[in-house]
Structure formats: structure tokens, C-alpha cells
Known about the structure:
Strand content: 15-25%
Distance between the termini: 57 Å
Helix content: 40-55%
Structural class: alpha+beta
Number of strands: 29
Family: Belongs to the cation transport ATPase (P-type) (TC 3.A.3) family. Type IB subfamily.
Number of domains: 6
Number of helices: 30
Membrane topology: Multi-pass membrane protein
Strand order of the largest sheet: 17-29-28-27-18-25-26
Protein name: ATPase P
Domain HMA: 89-155
GO biological process, one term: copper ion homeostasis
Radius of gyration: 34 Å
Amino acid sequence: MTSCFHCGEPVPTTGSYCLEIKGIVRPMCCPGCQAVAETILECGLASYYEHRTAPGIKGELVPAELAALSHYDLAEVQQEFVTDSGNVREIQLTVEGLTCAACAWLIERHLVTLAGLRYINVNTTTHRARIKWDPAHLSLSEILKRFAKIGYRAYPFQTHTQEALYAKEVRSYMFRLALAGLGSMQVMMCAVALYMDLFISVEEEFMVYFKWISLLLSTPIMIYSAQPFYIGAWRSIRQGHLSMDVSVSLALIGAFVASMWATIFNTGEVYYDSITMFVFFLLLGRFLELRARRKASESSSNLARLVPIMATLIGPESEREVAAKTLQVGDRVRVLAGSTLPADGIICHGCASVDESMLTGEHLPHLRKTGDQVYAGTINTDAPLEIRVSHRIEESRIAQIMRLQDHALDDKPAIAQMADQLSRHFILVLLFIAAGVWTFWHFHQPDQAFWITLAVLVATCPCALSLATPTALTSATAHLTRSGILLRRGHVLDILTKANRIVMDKTGTLTTGEVRLCATTVHGTLDADRCLSIARALEAQSEHPIARAFRLPADSIAVLPSVSEITPVIGHGITGRIEGIHYRIGSASWLGINDATHRATGLAIYLADDSQLLACFELEDTLRPDAQVLIASFKAAGLTTTILTGDGSGQADEIARILGVDELVKGVTPDGKLAYLKGCEDKGEISIMIGDGINDAPVLAGAHASFAMAGGTDLAKNSADAILLADDLRRLISARILALRTRHIIIENFVWSIGYNLLVLPLAACGLLPPYLAAAGMSLSSLIVVTNSMRLNR
Length: 794
């Protein structure tokens, strides 16, 4: 019966559906497949059929299902899984029907033509698509309908769906393993009977009987249990490259066909026991690898489990239990001692110690009181709290962490790409060696040529080589997340081992960013209290960190003078009119003052009217207690240390002196910071940048690797490659130590996997290693690599 060209299913004999594709009339099984194929051709994407490695999905969604997609445009539906950042919305979709890289190519090329689509990335490994779009020009339902139009079903990704897919994969492996294990034991029993012929005489009819029983027992294992290897091999061949599944499949199919030939024609030896044991060991190795990688990467999905399902909502008359995901900004919730916070919010009433280890990696609880910000997933350890919700759950800190970690997993570091290419070349060389081994033994011992070649293919399969890098990187990423460092891009660990310069912003990075007023010096006719009152009135209109130093304490009842004609001058200060007099407060250079005349060191802000300088306010920005440890550690490691700051005051010099940095570059603009970093790059230096402010965003984006402080601006965090969740600079030292350990582990994995192959190759080629031992050794080699990588999780 003819197969449908699109989905591969049989075409009914009464069917009349067909379509001309590149000059050839292709049969279709139904109008749905025909419509999908027509859509693919209309979009100019006929190349999909040339590069696909598996059939497409059957037909389109029925009209009723398409109409139901419009429900996803409702705001109350989208709030659970859509991130809204103003003009752009972002979503992760689970895509059903992805079978190969060609599917991802087809989806991306088809959807990219949509007006309003800003970004699309389809991951065939996770079966997920990340999409950004402009809601003013495009609706979510239209995006989902475009998926359906080319035969794929897409719906919002949720953690429980991921868990279900993982459970399905584990269940599939368990079934295949169970069949291979039980079958191989039965085949081994038959093999014992066959081997008895070496010691005692066994009648011919019994030998034939045991061979046929072994064939019957081995066939389900070859068809069902070994299926993943065949699929992987076929995909890689269709894509024009070699994978480890190619050599495995060649060995399995060759051995089985030869044994079947020997059984049917009753000539030669059979190795059903070796084949079935080989499949069992391979599946066991992959199953344990799946479990190990799952454990290493499950930290992000575990974050979602830390948020409680229910919350206690405080209503106007009574309290009631509601689903945590339905909480809105402004709702008030009660969190009892020992309970987990259901949402990000501000404490309205109460004081308690909060365990924030799931966000920061710091296991000691922190005291949080009225007015403090608290986060979903953290634990209230000792007293009831009343909290006003500040962010919906999909916009919470924990949701941001999950999204950023998913983005980091999209990146594949250069060392991982190198390992993939190395394994492909290794397989090609291996196939040539296997051909040479077969040729040699064919002329010397023809009856052993096939089995020795089989042992060569099995023993030297580069599974361990392909696992050497990804397992180590996954384990290291999980370790960093637990310790309070969130990687947004995958190359950070590699750069940490190569960097020779660390560049740091000053305010908010090396210092706490909490500027305080430490002294007031009067230079005019007004007294200190009057000058301070004017300064506070002017600075009350600003959100600049320096302005906070002039704010009155919460319990103060002082009345500030009224200000009119307020004009902020960005980068310099503020002007305003009080009681008819025009005042200015700001930097010395802006006011035309000789700074050195009035102050020797430190940060100073000046107040003046139109005729005279009135006062000098000396400010102090507290140095972080861990800043000196960071500088000392990196200098001891041989890195050049630089402070790169927009602060042109003497305080920058003082901090540079206290910390003992190698270089201070002060008073630079955001463009100047980026230019400095580019200059270092031109000299061949590899730099790490740490910052927190909006003015650091360009240099954070331009550095080889960059870290943003958790307390920094959103723009800085979005520009950085990693985020220090605990605002603890010592974590950066730990990150570099872990990066060096990761590189060491990867080198160990490479040495082991390559050394193992070089060791067993001559043994197998000389006929000293039977196929079943080769299979056991190859699986053991892979497990050693995975176990070695898991050391990074400790």
C-alpha cells in the first residue's frame, strides 16, 4: 500500500488526494495532510521534505480546536504563562510532533513571516519553542494557529507538562530495559546449552532448537528495545553527519543478521547472547545517564515546586484559601510561621526571620520587618506576616530565575561544540579502522572476521566522549544555581577560566550603594540647619541614590520648605526656587567650584544660590565587607583588577587605595566604559565585568563575561551573562573555583574516554575482546564519565 508523502501513513485505495512537489506528484492520505503540504509549498519551504529525518504530523486541527485557540488571547488566561514587558510579550510553548532539526527549521521559517513576531527559537531536544511578539500587531492565538497550519500542535509550557514528558520517557526506558534484561537472561540460558557442545556431545536437533528459541527471544529486543539507537542513527545519516548511534546500529544489525543467517541455514556461529546483552548494557547506560542529567538539571524545575499551591487571602470581612497563581497585585495575604510565601510582596504587618536560601544560596535566615520586600518560595521561619502582593506569580523573582535558566540552556559553549565535532570525526575514523580490521581477518580467519569487527565497533563507540562535556556543564550550572549564581548564558564558565582582567563598577558593586551624609560645612551666610533643610527639600524630588542620603528619618516630623520650578540636570544636580530664591545643589564642576579648595577627599555635594556657595555636604558610601576579599583573591590568581566608575570624585581614589586595585578609571560615561573594555580586548585581554546600574548595561553586554548584582537595575541584569542572587561578591570567587574544577573534570573525562578507546581498540582488533565484554566496557566507560561529572554537584 502506498504511504502518504507527508505523514507516512497508508493511503486508502479509494483516496484521491495528491499534490505536486518539485515536479513529482506525491500521494496524500487525507485532505488535512494535503492542506499542510500546500501551506508548506506556499511559504516556499519545500526544502523541509528534503532534510526531514522522520514523517510529519498527520493533518491539521479540526475547526473546533482552532476556534478554541482564541481563548489564549484572554488576559486572565495569559497571566499564568505569558511575560509582559511593555511592547513585547514572551512565552514558552510545548510543541508536539517535533521529530528532527528539519521540523524546527520549518516552524521557524514559517512563523518568522508573521508581522509582529520579534523572536522565535525552537529546541528539538526539549520540544519547546520560545517566542516573543508585539501584542499590538499579533495575537497569541494567531501564533498557535500558524503552528497548526503546518501540522504541529503548540500550547503553553508548564512545569507539570515537563514532568509528565520526563515520566513518559523514563517509563519507555523501563519497558525497553525490562524486555532486554529478561530476554537476555533467557537467551543466555539457551547459550549455556549451546556452549555445552564444547565439552560434551549434544544432538544436532537440540542445537538447532536452541538457536531458533534464541532467535525468537532476541527478535523483540532488536525490534523494540534497540529502537532508540536505530532512530538516532537514521536521523544523523539523513542530516549528513555521523553519531555514536551509527556505529551501535551497524554492530547490532550486522550481528543479528549474521546470527539469523546461521540459524536459518544451520551454518556458522550465533551470538544472540552477545547482542541482547549489548542492548541491555547500552540501555542501562543511557537510562542512568538520563537520570543523572535529570538530577543535575532539575534545580530550575524544583524552584517551581517551592511555591505553595494555596494562599490565605485577607478579604474585607474574612480570610479564605485561594489558588496562589490567582493572586493579583495589591492583594493582602497572611503567611503563618513555618509556611512558604506564595508571592512576591511587601510586609504590611509583622516582623520575622525569612529563609531565602532557595534564592540566594545563603542558609542563614534574614530578619525582615514592615516595609521590606520578600519573595515567593522563601520560608517564614518564626512569626506570622501580613504581605501585600507586589508582583503576580509569573512576574515574581522565582519565575524570572526559571526563565533566565531556560535561556542559558539554549546556549551551547564552544567546548561542547568541539566535543560534538570530535566525536563525529572519531566515528568516521573508527569506521575506517573497522573496515581495515575486517579486511585483515577475512584473509586470515574468515569465520572470526565479522565478530572481531563487531567487537571493534562496540568497544570503541564514543558514547563517553560525547558525554564528557555536557554532563559536566550541566552539573556545574546546577551547583551555581544552588549557591546563588544564576547563569543566563552558557559561556560564562569557560570565560572564568581564561580571564586575565576583572573590571568592577564602584557604586552599588564594590560599595553598598547606600550613601549617607556624614558632615556639613557652611561657606555662606546661612547656618547648617537651614542649608540642610534647603538641600533636603530639593533632593526630595529626586530618586538618585545620592538624594536618599538627604531624606528625613521615617519618625521625623520636620517640615521642609516648599519648592517650585524644580529642574533635574541629569549627571549634575537639581535646581529649584525656595521663597523666591534660586538654589542649585550638585557637583563641584557643575557649580564651577574648585573642589580641592573645600575638601581633600571623599564624595561631596555643594549647595549654592545665584550669588554664593552656601554649604558642602560630605557623603560616604560604605564599602562592601566582601570587596577586599574579592580583590585580594583575584590578584592572587594573577588577574589584573580595575575599578571603572562614573564617579569622578576623590572617593573613587580612596576606595581604590583601600582595596589596592591595579588600575582606577573614574569619571567615565557609559560609552567611555564600553570603549575602555574594547581597548582591553584589542590588547588581547579577556575581561570579566561586574556592575549594577543602568549606566553599566552597555559594558555588561559588551564584556566577554559579565555579572550583575541582584539588587541592581533590571536593565543591568538583562544585559549581564550571570546574576549574583545574594549580592555577595565572594560567590564570584567560588564561581571561578568551580569553573576551574569543571575544566579539570572535562579534561579528565576526555582523557578517560579517549584513553579507554585507545586501550581497548588493539584488544578488540586482535580478537582478545568478545562482543559482550566490549558492550559492558563501553557502558561502564560512559557511566564513569557521568559519575565523574556528578562530583561537581557536591
